[in-house]
Amino acid sequence: MTKHLIWIAALLLTLGACSKEEQAEPVVAETTAVETPTPEAVTEEAAANEPETETLEVVEESAAVEEPEDEPIVLALAEDADATAREWKYKEGEHYFRLVPTQPTVGGADKIEVAEAFMYSCPHCFTLEPYMVRWVAGKDPAVRFVRIPATWNQAAVLHAQIYYTQDILGRNGTLTDADAFHEAVFAEFHQRGNRLTSVASIQRLFARFGVSEDDFNKTWSSFEVNTRMRLGGDLNRRYGIQSVPAVVVNGKYRTSAADAGGYDELIELIDELTIREGLR
Questions:
Q1: Of 98, 162, 169, 220, whose Cβ has the fewest other Cβ atoms within 10 Å?
Q2: Spatial separation of the C-alpha atoms in residues 143 and 56, rounded to whole Å
Q3: Domains, the chain, ordered by start
């Protein structure tokens, strides 16, 4: 009996999540203040500033599906003849939960969006990362993947600022390997004991990847980074994210490894939900 209880406890820890209520380590340096805007303000400001590759325009998915003339998104995974008649493995209310009403997405309705809410300080996000990397490498071209850092406390805000800074520097070519940098942030926190709680320590990490101090400072304090942080905070609230890692499909379904039953099962569930969205 004791061994059975220990096994259950170990399983729950493996498939756990970092909750919103967990205490963060203190932040040493000042961070950029992030205001909480109204959804309307976020939409107007973001639409004018986000690059084409990952638009910051908040798109109401529910509005998109109401247009009868819209062409459905066809996924390669859903092209087999039995796709519409298949028996789905995962159940709503048990393995994933519907968001009512459907919430906005980061990008447009031209693709099915999979969003991962995460924190660099979360050990479960660190464990999930290689699974997500493999999934992204082989995902259907009609599926868009985005990351949304949680910003529940000062440390999380600082780490979200790291993510958006590296993403912008990666897209403009200043940071030559943004994916490697993203992995390095996880490694610094979880393997090297570098909590990245000061701007100076963060700047040194960027410098290791060839980013000059000037380029770092200009982007770190930029209007674009602050805009994206406000939008990310708004989406976390809209999606009802209370723990990470969590995955939201097309602003409509929220799930996690704990809900799905494991990390491999989560990847299967993501594919199943994107196929179902492609058939609607």
A1: 98
A2: 17
A3: 2-279 (3.40.30.10)
